[in-house]
Design a protein that fits this description.
12 strands, disordered C terminus, two-stranded antiparallel sheet, 375 residues
């Protein structure tokens, strides 16, 4: 029997089969369906013999323990803070719309990219999530969304998905193949990990790509997004072109509007020059304030003006409702609050970076709790 299994959704079919070597072969399919199609714990799989249920329940533990839950908008937005088996904390956000729901999942505990305006970036990197820790967030959200249908998964929670490429890719496959969501309803958001975008372009699932741009010239972008020094805009735009050519999917650019920083007419003009040739859609999100970056988000009038000027320059832009600002539903904020209150694990970031598997990008620099913004 293998010992590689960490949690129920980390086990491969082969590992499951090894756990059930004394059982008829069809039981493996039964358990796999129970886990993925039905979202059950083994203890709840009433079509299995009682002793097998108990054995599997112990061998396939849940990865996520609920540490805190917050709700807003009449429970249309729900945010969970989970404790992982090693004490790390991550968050997941469920957003309900009429008759469907979207879940925003984390791909890492913390993030090493150190974007100045981001709460996750400010609190540094703990570790990569396992396949099971990612998939279980989707399973939990699907259960909570019922009777509505969980239709979309976006990798916009904590962490940089393309810095944890192999596990994120395996999780996408399971979300598609085993949970049954279609590729056009899966979105990977990246801050611009160019080798990861190129690799994703070669994969066989045409998932959507969102690129967190925030600035359309290298000087400003390098200040907001340190990874830009490694992969400047010219390389990033080339990778975006490749992705689009390979997948034929609409590309989107994310732009957190920061008052007086990236909301000026010149910013709109530069952004339009990048977005228009690619036919990219722009999502504007007024910056959510974070403790380590005392700059405000653009006021509603300015947000509308920015959107309208993009429209006049031939770029489609929508303003993303910052659903759940009141429950800190932006990237990493609930986790950051708990860490500030001394709840979160204090695992050092650097140790885990050297253990990263093939395909992970080198970590640009340690980024633990910086007190001053980059600007
Ligand atoms: N690391 C990936 C995915 C997680 S971040 C990425 O950066 O794309 C998800 C989104 O939240 C990104 O577009 C990110 O730029 C945005 N974001 C981070 N901090 C924010 C803040 N304080 N206000 C608004 N958006 C923020
Ligand atoms: Fe990481 Fe994304 Fe936050 Fe940047 S914006 S620190 S890449 S989670």
């Amino acid at each position: 029997m293998t010992t590689a299994v960490v949690g129920a959704y980390d086990a491969s079919r082969e590992e499951l089969a090894a756990l059930m070597a004394d059982q008829p072969r069809y039981r493996v399919d039964q358990v796999w369906r129970g886990l993925y199609a039905k979202g059950l714990r083994p203890a709840g799989m009433t079509d299995l013999p009682r002793d097998l249920r108990a054995r599997l329940d112990a061998a396939l533990p849940a990865n996520l323990q609920l540490a805190a839950e917050s709700r807003s908008h009449g429970s249309r937005t729900v945010k969970w803070l989970w404790r992982l088996s090693d004490g790390s904390r991550i968050e997941t956000v469920l957003m309900r719309y009429p008759r469907r729901a979207t879940v925003c999942v984390s791909s890492q505990a913390g993030c090493a990219m150190g974007c100045s305006f981001c709460a996750t970036g400010q609190s540094g990197f703990d570790r990569h999530l396992t396949v099971g820790e990612i998939v279980e967030q989707v399973v939990a959200a699907r259960r909570a969304a019922e009777p509505d249908h969980l239709s979309n998964v976006v990798f916009m929670g904590m962490g940089e998905p393309l810095a944890n490429y192999d596990r994120v890719w395996d999780a996408l496959r399971r979300i598609h193949d085993d949970i049954g969501l279609s590729a056009r309803h899966l979105t990977v958001s990246t801050v611009g990990v160019v080798p990861g975008i190129r690799r994703l372009a070669r994969e066989d699932l045409p998932v959507n790509l969102a690129v967190s741009l925030h600035a359309a010239n290298d000087v400003l972008r390098s200040r907001l997004v340190p990874l830009n020094k490694r992969y400047p805009l010219s390389a990033l735009m080339e990778a975006c072109r490749q992705y689009q050519a390979a997948k034929g999917r609409r590309l989107s650019f994310e732009w957190a509007l920061i008052a007086g920083v990236n909301d000026r007419p010149a910013d709109a003009r530069e952004l339009s020059e990048l977005a228009r040739p690619l036919g990219a859609h722009v999502n504007l999100i007024p910056l959510n304030p974070t403790p380590g970056y005392p700059v405000r988000g653009t006021a509603p009038d300015g947000v509308r003006a920015f959107r309208d000027s993009l429209g006049r320059m031939g770029v489609n832009a929508t303003v993303r409702q910052n659903r759940g600002t009141d429950i800190d539903a932006a990237c990493g904020q609930l986790a950051a609050r708990s860490a500030a209150a001394g709840v979160a694990g204090e695992a050092g970031g650097a140790a885990l970076t050297s253990a990263s598997a093939g395909g992970d990008v080198p970590i640009p620099r340690p980024a633990r709790r910086r007190s001053a913004p980059n600007l």
